[in-house]
Amino acid sequence: MHHQTYRSQHGLAKGGSARGITLVQGILVVVPIAAVAAAGIVYLHFSSSSIQRLIVSTTTSLYDTGLLEIVGDSFRKEQNINVSFVAAGTGLALQYAQRGDADVVLVHSPSQELAFMQAGDGVNRKIIAYNFFIIVGPVDDPVKVQGLSALEALNKIKQAGEAGTAVWVSRGDDSGTHTKEKALWKAAKINVTKIREEPWYLEAGTGMGKTLQIANEREAYTLSDTGTYLKYFKDGLISLEDLITQGKDLLNVYSVIAESPSKQADVNFEGAMKFIRFLVSQEGQDLIGSYGKEEYGEPLFYPAVQLLKENTIPELLAWIQGYAYLNGSECIPQYRYEEGTLYET
Length: 345
Description:
Blueprint: H1 6-9, E1 28-31, E2 41-45, E3 52-59, H2 60-63, H3 67-79, E4 81-88, H4 90-98, E5 104-107, H5 110-118, E6 122-137, H6 150-162, E7 168-170, H7 176-187, H8 192-195, E8 201-203, H9 208-218, E9 221-225, H10 226-234, E10 241-244, E11 251-259, H11 269-280, H12 282-290, H13 293-296, E12 302-303, H14 305-310, H15 314-324
Parallel strand pairs: 3-4, 3-5, 7-8, 7-9
Antiparallel strand pairs: 1-2, 2-4, 5-11, 6-9, 6-10, 6-11, 6-12
Helix pairs in contact: 11-12
């Protein structure tokens, strides 16, 4: 059967109006769509039926914090383009773009991003922000991992789990956070395939916010991005403590990638590039760097563009380059398409 994408089902050809969707003036509409899969949520921001639209598939860790609502509103005001966010784990977010259901992706898993571009689906990758993954757990920290390195902590949690005194909750959803978690277990010389079969290792198979709530209910440990944790903790949804919060092994880097117009003929490539340029602009970077400061006492994400250009923190830049650069670059030259001045320093 010929695959019919979300875009074609709803008349979204090159930013056109959404036929088949009820348009609600100025209201956030949450629409479950079978073509987007059960794990995803579509957030549609509409203000009129004639305005151009851009579909962004993104991670739950970015959307759950509320940052993208601010970014989407500012971008719409500047470019007169409404942004619809499809929130899922990185794996699904990339799949949506691969089948034509998104114009651009915002994700945080360099290995999956490289595979996406190598398959001919993505172009013009730019690193836009970073923060750190954190290991969180019960307030009393029964395994006593606070102060340890991430790899030491995982080994202690495994030992305690096998002794029946600890539980670990994994995203288990092929997200960027899940990919990072698996890499950490491997670096700790622990076979994640084996521990998946053990009773102390639980797989939530859901987004970051829900995973944190499950870990909270089970008094368990888990890996989280900083932004979602801070929001859920501040909102009183969880009482877990952030036990391990820094270190090279916990670096978390966010990138934006446009869907290739060579792969999807009806992609809104022009809108995607405007969105990418907005995110890397001073305005976009200021929005990222200021979000959360007033409410949480610290930003949920740190802007990366100036750091990459000016090498203001050499050690951190080296970490980002080692973790998130692909063959020594934000975007390998062969995956740059009509990018103009995007990569000029």
